[in-house]
Design brief:
heterodimer; A: alpha+beta; Ribosomal Protein S5, domain 2; five-stranded mixed sheet; B: alpha+beta; OB fold (Dihydrolipoamide Acetyltransferase, E2P); Ribosomal Protein S8, Chain: A, domain 1; 3 domains; six-stranded antiparallel sheet; four-stranded mixed sheet
């Protein structure tokens, strides 16, 4: 790290008025849109657009755990796979699991295992798939946010949804929800996932360095943002399960339903 | 169902659904005397118990449910049935309606065959046992099976069986609706196709208001077109 410190940082991440490259304030989220139930074959699914991130999540189960030796006679396994599409980044990503995606799969799976009532389904497995179609920093947070909507859509019993958001440090200032440029040229990135009802933290990672007070401020930013994201998640689920008027739908479509 | 009960509230996991006085029922959990939803579904309150009627999710076997199982494996004295649940269900030869000689199981039910059976018991570790030694439980011959989400089964059956009876009356199709979301239909192919479309309509709009009337209208129109 030290030997590149002398290279001048070309990008000015925060301008004099405190605006970021994409015009956001330091405590502002990127625009988020969540849609639940987008896949027919999966038990539950969700799609999220978070800034320039595009992530699809699918959930299967509880279903029989395979291979059999993995089965836990007392509870369900929560298995997660985070995967990036080859076309999700500007340079082609070599397909298949790598060090980074294996790690993210592990920590995301553990975050969900904390909320799912695993003891209700012994010997089974709940399988979560997070597919990143387009990446622009913060994909694990987008993935976890979408996967938790997919879990609820799949009818998996759980204590609460999981909301996730990152914050970090750019140009010496603490900022919420870093985008790609900010992540690449910033000083630190700190993703977290929280159980909104209790405030329990189920995932916390950090890349780079933060001072203790900076960390506290970053956590506060992430926590506030997670509550907003939680509302969006609930809204997405409500939209999917609205009570519709069957007659009106029939009218619309005619007899050939 | 639709006329007698007011519109039910949609709840999302983690949502507070009762803050005291009510007991925690299915699809819920309690913490510090408060009850929260554990599943996405509709809030329901009955006899001091608050529960959540799920709108999605896998079928979890329960004793006394009548289900349609498909044979996936054979043993010398048992069959292994797939009942659309996370757990396979063994059917022992002694629980079948036939006198099965040791090793002769394939004679009566072979891999791929389907049968209506009843869940005999489910233990704490979710080990399932099924039986066919009761009235109305039999091997399925002919017809076809359609699958729907098990959470839609109550709407397909309707209040007191009204919906399913209406479909049978219009289409003159023989059928059986398993609690696990498998539906067996037999009859004239065109009638079966109409019945399937009616079922898909119910499945798609299971939470809709005025569903019975809509399905009736659909059947009326479908048969008016053919006449």
């Amino acid at each position: 790290m030290e030997d590149i410190e002398h290279i001048p940082k070309e990008i000015q991440l925060v301008d004099d008025s405190g605006r970021r490259l994409d015009g956001r304030a330091l405590d502002e989220l990127r625009p988020i849109r969540i849609e639940a139930g987008v896949l027919k074959r999966a038990d539950g699914s969700a799609y999220i657009e978070w800034g320039d991130n595009r992530v699809l999540a699918a959930v299967y189960g509880p279903r029989e755990a395979h291979p059999r030796h993995l089965q836990d006679p007392a509870r369900a396994l929560v298995q997660c796979r985070y995967n990036m599409a080859p076309f999700s980044v500007s340079d082609r990503k070599r397909p298949g699991p790598d060090r980074r995606s294996v790690e993210i799969s592990k920590v995301a799976g553990e975050a969900f295992a904390a909320v799912v009532f695993t003891e209700q389904f012994p010997r089974t497995s709940v399988d979560i798939f997070i597919e990143v179609l387009q990446a622009d920093a913060g994909t694990r947070c987008a993935g976890i946010t979408a996967a938790s909507v997919a879990l609820a859509d799949a009818g998996v019993p759980m204590r609460d949804l999981v909301a996730s958001c990152a914050s970090g440090k750019i140009a010496g200032q603490v900022a919420l929800d870093l985008n790609k440029e900010e992540d690449n040229f910033g000083d630190a990135d700190c993703p977290m996932a929280v159980v909104p009802r209790t405030g329990e933290i189920v995932l916390l990672q950090m890349d780079g360095h933060l001072m203790e007070d900076e960390f506290d401020r970053a956590m506060k930013l992430s926590m506030n943002a997670a509550m907003k994201i939680y509302e969006m998640q609930k809204e997405a689920l409500r939209r999917r399960y609205v009570v519709t008027d069957a007659e009106a739908l029939l009218e619309e479509r005619g007899v050939d339903t | 169902m639709e006329s007698s009960t007011p519109q039910r509230q949609l709840v999302i996991p983690g949502e507070l659904i009762a803050s005291g006085g009510l007991k925690s029922g299915e699809g819920t959990y309690s913490e510090d005397g408060k009850v929260f939803a554990a599943q996405l579904g509709l809030r329901s309150e009955r006899g001091g118990v608050v529960s959540v009627i799920p709108l999605s999710g896998r079928y979890i076997p329960r004793a006394d449910d009548e289900v349609i199982g498909q044979v996936v494996d054979l043993g010398p004295s048992h069959w292994l049935l797939d009942i659309n649940a996370p757990y396979p269900a063994p059917l022992h030869a002694t629980e079948s309606p036939w006198r099965v000689e040791f090793g002769d199981t394939a004679k009566y039910l072979d891999i791929g065959d389907s049968a209506i059976c009843r869940i005999l018991q489910v233990d704490e570790t979710k080990r399932v046992q099924v039986t066919m030694r009761e009235q109305g439980l039999h091997r399925l011959e002919g017809g076809q099976i359609v699958e729907v989400s098990h959470s839609k089964v109550p709407r397909i059956i309707g209040k007191g069986g009204s919906m399913v009876m209406m479909i049978k009356k219009y289409t003159k199709v023989q059928g059986f609706v398993g609690q696990n979301g498998r539906i067996w239909l037999e009859g004239n192919v065109e009638d079966v196709m109409i019945a399937i479309r009616a079922i898909r309509l119910i499945e798609e709009h299971a939470q809709a208001l005025g569903l019975t009337e809509a399905v009736k209208e659909f059947l009326d129109r479908a048969y008016a077109q053919r006449a």
